[in-house]
Specification:
The complex is a heterodimer.
Chain A (H helix, E strand, L loop, with lengths): L4 H10 L1 H33 L6 E6 L12 H7 L15 E7 L2 E3 L5 E3 L1 E5 L3 H4 L4 E5 L8 E5 H6 L8 E4 L2 E10 L8 E5 H8 L7 E5 L6 H10 L5 E5 H9 L2 H33 L1 H10 L3 H38 L2 E4 L5 E4 L9 H24 L2 H7 L1
Parallel strand pairs in A: 5-10, 7-9
Antiparallel strand pairs in A: 1-11, 1-12, 2-5, 2-11, 3-4, 6-9, 7-10, 8-9, 13-14
Helix pairs in contact in A: 1-11, 2-8, 2-9, 2-11, 2-12, 9-12, 10-13, 11-12
Chain B lengths: L3 H10 L1 H34 L5 E6 L7 E2 L1 H7 L4 E9 L2 E2 L10 E4 L4 H4 L7 H9 L3 E5 H6 L7 E6 L5 E10 L6 E4 H10 L6 E2 L1 E6 L5 H11 L7 E5 H8 L4 H31 L2 H9 L4 H38 L16 H28 L2 H8 L1
Parallel strand pairs in B: 5-9, 6-8
Antiparallel strand pairs in B: 1-11, 1-12, 2-10, 3-5, 3-11, 4-7, 6-9, 7-8
Helix pairs in contact in B: 1-12, 2-10, 2-12, 2-13, 10-13, 11-14, 12-13
The chains are: A alpha+beta, B alpha+beta.
Chain lengths: 392, 387
């Protein structure tokens, strides 16, 4: 016969202080792990959610990002009439030529960061259909206007709607706010491509194009045709793959954080083991009584193991709740977390604990519970009823 | 001191518990060390940039904005400037499909020896750099990574200019920079042959003769270009590098929060063990008091027990961190740019020593409450309860 789960639960609660210590240790490990894990998760989500499955990114062969690419005007003029490219209602191809420049911006705190400024043409909003103007309006060409990402407008001096924003030795009027569902476009500023090229004195007008592929066209065939054209050394990548590749370096960070989490987890296992040994010791006579009453070794083992796992699960629940609140507090206090991106600009990520960020901490807690309880539970099960009763 | 054997024996009374506690604290201390090393890597880079008379002039709009190359001569003419060289981003790649793997710049060979006197290079190396048009000075990190040695010839295809150049490595730069430097004139000739005009520069690095003069010289340079086509911003090397990584500030805050959480963890682990072992011994403590041991003696032996355990654990933790950091350094070298210098994982002895002290103090602190309680308890009451 098995011991009811409520026995384990009540035993856990009965030794209040000691349980509280263990719960605190495991909960702290959960909070630390969750914060890091969800930070990388947030970074990855920000990058991966940028880009549309219908778009191609065209860059110079070998350019790993549009900050390091340069293309000629004639390539643009020719490629935009390739077959398979979607067209707007007026019949113009949906090809967005873009120029990327990384000028200094100044934060309210007085520090300086490089921000990705994208020189665009009016077609950009149609090609990047996930980017919306949530407030204000889109820029008019050649009028010294800028639209800024939602995060940019909060992070930098003079970047709020209606303000004069100074960058690139010029003043720009902020006429709109870009909303891109939390993706990295919200860390960008968009201005007129020609104005930006003049301002930055760029020898070539464009860094790359984004192409909206027609719904019935073969995306890979179009990409191959662009790449194989002998006139220019170009490369066309699906936009989602482009951002996935930009986010792939986050995978190394996952491994580092997982390593640190395992380290913290092992420490917590030791703490939990200590605690359960003390629990077994304190209840020697009780175990003896239970065995004398006819409960099997297996029943004792599972009862103590259950107690340990319950403690860990309880700690996980508390830790997860605190992390969630802490993430909100951190986001409120810091605004966003800046990461350096491959374009040498600041990619701002809003820290958020998503449900999937909790799987790893949950698994870690359960393992802490199981491994922390295993040895003490086995010791409890090994006790002979006679000895246990005599000791007491 | 004469009670040390007693303290030691008490720790050995429940060896499993002492071992588990020490291991848990050691792991937490190791984590704290690793976490604190991340922002320290950034500080180390800033501290190594302590050449306090080296200043950088660049376009006020950003490093990607250029300045006329003629600015270099004007900067060199400013009184107090010992030497100045220009830097141009070449964006050279070994394999164009892999992109730019290390920063590479075209610089002026005249003045580099003065501007980078702190590299401590043999004057002959700078002389070679000046003498050979295709000479390159390369950061030792990049040399090791690509298994190059002085004398090797490497070809870089520019991602900025329509040229590909072959360089002969004439020297290794001993600092932590991965950069690759070569002569501006070599690039200028290649571009002239390709019909590209080349009359701009991205940055000018200068050496000022006197630390006290740095401020006025910087102001004078910026004043000189205030009304020209490219307004400049001049700053010290430390400020330049600090600004370069300023975007990572919030990330550092989060790392510090997590390090603080893990430290708090140690408090709970240590306090739990201290309270467990003292509670089990109340009877024994009462007897010690009954036979004449003073309150203070009992209190300090109990405290010493908690402190000693934490100290040993702290030392073990610092040693673990030392080993892990070395391993992480190798692993994280391919971690990509998102964390910048945060994944440099350079071992700092200050952090390791601090961690040992932190551990010891937490041990003492966590033993305080239960030890005080135990030493103050009335003998009669305890003995009545226990027997």
């Amino acid at each position: 016969m098995a011991l009811p789960l409520s026995y384990s639960w009540r035993s856990m609660l009965a030794r209040g202080t000691r349980t509280a210590f263990t719960v605190a240790v495991i909960a702290l490990v959960v909070i630390a792990t969750t914060l890091f894990w969800s930070l990388i998760g947030s970074l990855k989500r920000t990058l991966v959610s940028s880009g549309s499955p219908h778009n191609l990114v065209v860059m110079r062969k070998g350019a790993t990002n549009d900050g390091s690419s340069q293309l000629s005007l004639d390539a643009y003029q020719t490629i935009r009439f390739f077959e398979g490219i979607a067209r707007d209602s007026a019949g113009n191809p949906l090809v967005s030529p873009e120029l990327v420049v990384q000028p200094f911006f100044h934060t309210a705190g007085g520090t300086r960061e490089n921000v990705l400024v994208r020189g665009v043409e009016p077609v950009a909003l149609e090609v990047h259909d996930e980017v919306k103007i949530s407030e204000g309006r889109m820029i008019h060409p050649s009028s010294g206007e800028a639209v800024v990402g939602r995060i940019v407008s909060k992070r930098y001096k003079g970047a709020s709607l209606g303000s004069e924003l100074r960058f690139g030795n010029a003043n720009w009027k902020v006429v709109g706010i870009l909303d891109a569902g939390g993706s990295s476009f919200e860390s960008e500023v968009w201005v007129d491509a020609r104005e930006l090229a003049n301002n930055a004195k760029r020898p070539l007008p464009y860094s790359g194009f984004r192409i909206r592929v027609a719904p019935d066209a073969d995306m890979d065939a179009l990409a191959r045709r662009i790449a194989d054209d002998p006139r220019w050394a170009l490369e066309a990548t699906r936009e989602i793959d482009y951002y996935k590749q930009l986010s792939s370096t986050a995978n190394t960070l996952y491994i580092i954080v997982a390593g640190l989490a395992v380290l913290a987890g092992i420490g917590a296992i030791f703490g939990a083991t200590n605690n359960m040994y003390a629990a077994v010791q304190a209840r020697t006579s009780e175990i003896g009584t239970l065995r004398a009453l006819g409960f099997s070794r297996g029943a004792i083992l599972s009862a103590f193991l259950a107690e340990s796992v319950m403690t860990a699960a309880f700690a996980f629940a508390i830790g997860a709740a605190i992390s969630w609140l802490l993430a909100i507090a951190i986001s409120a206090a810091l605004g966003g977390i800046g990461f350096a991106s491959q374009t040498f600009t600041t990619n701002v990520v809003v820290l958020r604990v998503a449900p999937q960020d909790l799987f790893m901490p949950l698994a870690l807690s359960v393992l802490i519970g199981v491994f922390g309880g295993l040895a003490p539970a086995a010791a409890a099960a090994r006790l002979r009823p006679v000895d246990a009763l005599r000791k007491a | 001191m004469k009670y040390l054997p007693l303290v030691w024996r008490n720790l050995g009374r429940n060896p499993l518990r002492s071992l588990l506690t020490a291991a848990a604290i050691a792991l937490a201390i190791a984590l704290v060390c690793i976490l604190r090393t991340m922002p320290a890597g950034m500080d180390a880079i800033l501290a190594s940039a302590a050449a306090n008379t080296r200043i950088s002039t660049h376009n006020e709009a950003g490093i990607v904005y250029s300045m006329p190359y003629a600015y270099l001569a004007k900067v060199r003419a400013v009184p107090g400037v010992v030497a100045a060289i220009s830097w141009n981003w070449f964006g050279g790649a070994i394999d164009i499909t892999k992109g730019v793997e290390f920063p590479n710049f075209a610089v002026d060979p005249d003045g580099i020896a003065e501007v980078y006197a702190d590299w401590g290079l043999d004057p002959k190396v700078f002389e070679d750099f000046r003498k050979y048009r295709d000479a390159a000075l390369v950061g030792h990190i990049t040399l090791e990574k690509h298994r190059w040695k002085v004398g090797d010839v490497v070809t870089l295809q520019s991602t900025v200019f329509p040229v590909s150049l072959s360089f002969r490595i004439v020297g290794a730069v001993p600092t932590s920079t991965p950069a690759f430097y070569f002569q501006r004139e070599y690039l200028a000739q290649a571009l002239a042959a390709a019909g590209v005009t080349f009359d701009t520069t991205g940055m000018i690095w200068s050496r000022v003769d006197d630390p006290d003069r740095v401020g006025p010289v910087m102001r004078q340079i910026d004043e000189m270009f205030r009304n020209s086509e490219a307004i400049t911003a001049t700053e010290t090397e430390k400020s330049f590098i600090g600004n370069f990584f300023s975007g990572l500030k919030q990330l550092v805050t989060i790392i510090q929060i997590v390090a603080a959480l893990v430290t708090l963890c140690i408090v709970f682990i240590a306090a739990n063990t201290a309270s467990m072992s003292i509670r089990e011994r109340v009877g024994e403590i009462a007897i010690l008091k009954a036979i004449g041991f003073r309150k203070q003696t009992i209190f300090s032996t109990l405290l010493a027990e908690a402190g000693l355990l934490a100290l040993v654990a702290g030392i073990a933790g610092a040693a673990t961190a030392f080993g892990l950091l070395k391993a992480l350094r190798v692993f994280a070298s391919g971690a990509g740019p998102q964390l910048g210098p945060l994944t440099a994982f350079v071992v700092s002895y200050t952090i390791l020593v601090q961690a040992i002290f932190i551990s010891f103090f937490i041990g003492i602190l966590s033993g305080w409450v239960p030890a005080l309680g135990a030493s103050r308890r009335s003998v009669a009451q305890t003995l009545r309860e226990v027997f």
